[in-house]
C-alpha cells in the first residue's frame, strides 16, 4: 500500500493507527489477508465492504478482541502485540451497543472510570460531561430498557468517549436505527467527532453511510483493501470493477480497447454496437485488450426519439450514444430511475433529477429513446 | 347466549373447565387429605374424630425427628451452595468453550438426572463403603459429608442446565464491552456475566434445595445410623403405623418447601425489575 499517505492528510504527522502486514486466519479461512494501513490523527476513517470482507475482524483486532495471526498493529506508535483489550487506548461502540442492562445510564457511563479507579467526584463530573455531550444528561438515572434504540446508542457513545480514548471504534453504528434517525445520526456523529477531536474508525457495509460521514474510506473485499481514498475518489475514480460496482450503482460494459492515443481512446462494446465509447484521455492499456467501462446512471442523458441521433460535444459521431426503449420508471420523488432496454438486449439504468414539478419531456413506459453520455463520464477499467 | 368462542380459546369450553377441575382434584386431593388428617384426633387415623393440635405438639417434642429435620436442612444448605458453585462453572464452561468431547461431557452432566435413583443410591452405597469409607464419628457438619456429596452429584446438573439455558440469551458483546472499558477477565465476569445469570442461580438454588430436602432413595443408601434425614425418619415412623404424627411431619415439610419457594420467587422477581 503505497498510497497510504495521500489524499489531503497533513504530511509528517505520525499515524495514530498502523496495521503492518496484518493477517487473520481461522483454520483455512482467511478473514484478513496481509493488510497494511495507516490512519492519521483526527480522521474519520471508514472500513467499507460487503459482509464477510474482514472489516469487523480488522476493527476487533485493533480493540484487542481478536489476535492477529501475523503482522503488527501500532496504536500511537506502540506495538499492541501482547496488550489485552483493557490496556489499550481505544474504545469501541458495539453493533448491539452492549449497554449493561442491570446498570443505570450513569452507571454504564461510569463503569470504565470506576474500573480505572477514578475518584468519585471526578467520575461524576466526567460522566455528566459525557452524557451532556450526547444530549442524555436528563436521562442519567434511567435503566437501559426504558430507552429507545437511538438513546441506547448514545449511552454506548458516552461510555466509550468518557474514557478519552485515542481512537473511537464504531462497529456498524447506524445499522440498527430506522431510516430517518440514521440520517440524523450521520450528521451528529461527524459533529461529535469534530467536537471531541478524536480519531474515529467506523466499520460499515452501507456505502451511503461511509460516503456521507467519512473523510477517508478503505474499501475491503475478501480480506484485503481494494481501494483507499476520499469518498469522491472512490466514487468518481474507482480502481476496479469491484469498487465501481460496490460504491453506488453503475452500468458496466465489457469491451475491447480498439484505439489508445495519448489524448483519446475508443472502446468497442458488443452490447452497444454499432455505437462505441470515446474518452478524451489515454487508457494506457494494450491495444485490443479486454477492458470494462463503468458509467454512473446520473452521468447519462435521455433524449426523445428522433430520426437523427443526438450529438455529444467533443465526440466523434456515433460515439457515446445508444438507442433503447423505456422498460420501467421508478419515481423516487427527488429523482426518477429509468430502466432502458437497449437494442442488443442489455438493460441499463439512468437517473434524472426531477428539477421541475412538471416534467417537460414526460417520458412514458415503453417509449423509444436515445441515450447519450459525455466523454468524461465513462471510467475505463483494465483487467 | 355467550359470545362465540375464538378458534383457539379452548379455555372457554365447559368441557375443558371440567377437565381442568378434575386435574386439580387428582393432583391436590391427596395433599389436602394429608394436611386435614394431621389435625385428626385419632390414633389409627382412619376416621375423622375431631380437631386437635396434639400431634404437632408431639412433633415438636420428638427429639429424633427434630434432629433429622436439622440434618436435612444442613445437608440441603451445603449441597445447594456446592451445587451452585460447581453447576454455575459447568454451565459457563459448556456455553463458552468448544472443546474435544464436549458432547460427551454434556451427556455426562445429564447422567445423574437420567440414571434411576435406586442405581445412584446403590452406587453411592458401594462408593462410600469400598472406595471412600466415611467415618461415623466426625463432628457436625462433616458427619453428613457423604450425604452432602451424594446430593451434590444429582443437584449440580440441574443448576448447570438452568445456567446454560440462561446464558443462551447473553450478548457476548457486553462482556467484550466490559473488557474494552478496562475490566480484566474476573471483573468482566463479576460485573456483567454474573448479574445476567443471577435469576438462573436463584432458580437453580431453589431446585437444588428442594431436591436435596425431599430426597429419600439416595439418602437412604448413604445415611448412617446417626445421620438420619427427615424423609428417612418419616419412612421409619411409617413402618410402625400411620399415625397423624406422620401427617403432621409431612405437612411441616410441605410448608417449609412452599415458604422457601415463595421466598426465592420473590427474590427472583425483585432481581428482574430493579427500579
Mean pLDDT of chain A: 89
Structural class of chain B: mainly alpha
Biggest beta sheet attributes of chain A: 6 strands, mixed
How would you name the CATH homologous superfamily of the domain at 68-231 in chain B?
A: MetI-like
Q: Ranges of chain A with pLDDT <50 over ≥5 residues?
A: 1-10
Q: Termini distance of chain B?
A: 46 Å
CATH topology name of the domain at 68-231 in chain B: MetI-like fold
The description of the largest β-sheet of chain B is: none
Measure the end-to-end span of chain A: 19 Å
Note poorly predicted spans of chain B: none
Question: What does the average pLDDT of chain B come to?
Answer: 86
Polypeptide structure, described:
The complex is a heterodimer of chains A (383) and B (275). Chain A has 383 residues and is α+β, with helices and mostly antiparallel strands. Chain A has two domains: 3-245, Rossmann fold; 249-382, Beta Barrel (OB fold (Dihydrolipoamide Acetyltransferase, E2P)), CATH 2.40.50.100. Helix content of chain A is 22%, strand content 33%. In chain A, helix 2 (105-115) crosses helix 3, helix 2 packs parallel to helix 4 (149-161) and helix 3 crosses helix 4 (149-161). Chain A is elongated and about 80 Å long. Mean pLDDT of chain A is 89; it is low at 1-10. Chain B is mainly α. Chain B has a domain at 68-231: MetI-like fold (Orthogonal Bundle). Helix content of chain B is 73%, strand content 0%. Chain B has eleven helices and no strands. Chain B has helices at 14-37, 54-61, 63-96, 102-114, 117-131, 145-167, 172-180, 185-214, 217-222, 230-238, 244-272. In chain B, helix 7 (172-180) packs across helix 8 (185-214). At the A-B interface, strand 6, helix 2 and helix 4 of A face helix 7 and helix 8 of B.
Amino acid at each position: 500500500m503505497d498510497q497510504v499517505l495521500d489524499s489531503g492528510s497533513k504530511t509528517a504527522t505520525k499515524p495514530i493507527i498502523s496495521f503492518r502486514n496484518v493477517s487473520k486466519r481461522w483454520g483455512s479461512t482467511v478473514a484478513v489477508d496481509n493488510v497494511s494501513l495507516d490512519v492519521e490523527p483526527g480522521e474519520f476513517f471508514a472500513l467499507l465492504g460487503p459482509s464477510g470482507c474482514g472489516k469487523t475482524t480488522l476493527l476487533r483486532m485493533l480493540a484487542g478482541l481478536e489476535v492477529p495471526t501475523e503482522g503488527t498493529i501500532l496504536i500511537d506508535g506502540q506495538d499492541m502485540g501482547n496488550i489485552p483489550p483493557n490496556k489499550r487506548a481505544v474504545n469501541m461502540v458495539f453493533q448491539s451497543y452492549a449497554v449493561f442492562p442491570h446498570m443505570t445510564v450513569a452507571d454504564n457511563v461510569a463503569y470504565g472510570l470506576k474500573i480505572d479507579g477514578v475518584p468519585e467526584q471526578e467520575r461524576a463530573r466526567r460522566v455528566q460531561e459525557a452524557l451532556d455531550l450526547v444530549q442524555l444528561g436528563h436521562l442519567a438515572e434511567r435503566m437501559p430498557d426504558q430507552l429507545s434504540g437511538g438513546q441506547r446508542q448514545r449511552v454506548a457513545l458516552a461510555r466509550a468517549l468518557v474514557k478519552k480514548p485515542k481512537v473511537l471504534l464504531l462497529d456498524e453504528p447506524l445499522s440498527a436505527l430506522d431510516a430517518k434517525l440514521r440520517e440524523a445520526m450521520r450528521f451528529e456523529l461527524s459533529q461529535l467527532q469534530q467536537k471531541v477531536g478524536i480519531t474515529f474508525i467506523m466499520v460499515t457495509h452501507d456505502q451511503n453511510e461511509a460516503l456521507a460521514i467519512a473523510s477517508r474510506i478503505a474499501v475491503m473485499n475478501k480480506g484485503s483493501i481494494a481501494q483507499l481514498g476520499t469518498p469522491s475518489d472512490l466514487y468518481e475514480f474507482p480502481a476496479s470493477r469491484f469498487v465501481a460496482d460496490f460504491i453506488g450503482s453503475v452500468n458496466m460494459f465489457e469491451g475491447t480497447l480498439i484505439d489508445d492515443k495519448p489524448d483519446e481512446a475508443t472502446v468497442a462494446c458488443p452490447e452497444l454496437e454499432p455505437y462505441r465509447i470515446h474518452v478524451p484521455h489515454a487508457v494506457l492499456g494494450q491495444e485490443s485488450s479486454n477492458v470494462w467501462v463503468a458509467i454512473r446512471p446520473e452521468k447519462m442523458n435521455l433524449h426523445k426519439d428522433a430520426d437523427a441521433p443526438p450529438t455529444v460535444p467533443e465526440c466523434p459521431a456515433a460515439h457515446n450514444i445508444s438507442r433503447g426503449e423505456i422498460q420501467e420508471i421508478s419515481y423516487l420523488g427527488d429523482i426518477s430511475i429509468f430502466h432502458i432496454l437497449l437494442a442488443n438486449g442489455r438493460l441499463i439504468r439512468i437517473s434524472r433529477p426531477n428539477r421541475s414539478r412538471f416534467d417537460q419531456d414526460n417520458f412514458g413506459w415503453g417509449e423509444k429513446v436515445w441515450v447519450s453520455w459525455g466523454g468524461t463520464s465513462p471510467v475505463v477499467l483494465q483487467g | 347466549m355467550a359470545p362465540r368462542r375464538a378458534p383457539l380459546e379452548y379455555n372457554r369450553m365447559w368441557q375443558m373447565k371440567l377437565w381442568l377441575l378434575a386435574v386439580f382434584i387428582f393432583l391436590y386431593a391427596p395433599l389436602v387429605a394429608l394436611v386435614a388428617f394431621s389435625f385428626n384426633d385419632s390414633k389409627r387415623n382412619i376416621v375423622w374424630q375431631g380437631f386437635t393440635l396434639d400431634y404437632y405438639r408431639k412433633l415438636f417434642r420428638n427429639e429424633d425427628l427434630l434432629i433429622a429435620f436439622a440434618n436435612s436442612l444442613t445437608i440441603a444448605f451445603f449441597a445447594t451452595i456446592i451445587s451452585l458453585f460447581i453447576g454455575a462453572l459447568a454451565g459457563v464452561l459448556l456455553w463458552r468453550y468448544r472443546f474435544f468431547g464436549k458432547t460427551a461431557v454434556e451427556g455426562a452432566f445429564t447422567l445423574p438426572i437420567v440414571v434411576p435413583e435406586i442405581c445412584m443410591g446403590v452406587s453411592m452405597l458401594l462408593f462410600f463403603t469400598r472406595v471412600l469409607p466415611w467415618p461415623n464419628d466426625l463432628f457436625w457438619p462433616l458427619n453428613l459429608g457423604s450425604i452432602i456429596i451424594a446430593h451434590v452429584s444429582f443437584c449440580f446438573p440441574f443448576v448447570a442446565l438452568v445456567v446454560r439455558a440462561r446464558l443462551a440469551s447473553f450478548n457476548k458483546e457486553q462482556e467484550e464491552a466490559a473488557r474494552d472499558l478496562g475490566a480484566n477477565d474476573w471483573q468482566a465476569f463479576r460485573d456483567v456475566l454474573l448479574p445476567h445469570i443471577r435469576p438462573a442461580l436463584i432458580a437453580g438454588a431453589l431446585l437444588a434445595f428442594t431436591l436435596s430436602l425431599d430426597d429419600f432413595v439416595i439418602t437412604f443408601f448413604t445415611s448412617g445410623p446417626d445421620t438420619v434425614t427427615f424423609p428417612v425418619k418419616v419412612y421409619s415412623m411409617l413402618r410402625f403405623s400411620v399415625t397423624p404424627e406422620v401427617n403432621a411431619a409431612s405437612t411441616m415439610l410441605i410448608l417449609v418447601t412452599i415458604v422457601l419457594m415463595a421466598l426465592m420467587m420473590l427474590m427472583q422477581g425483585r432481581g428482574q425489575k430493579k427500579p
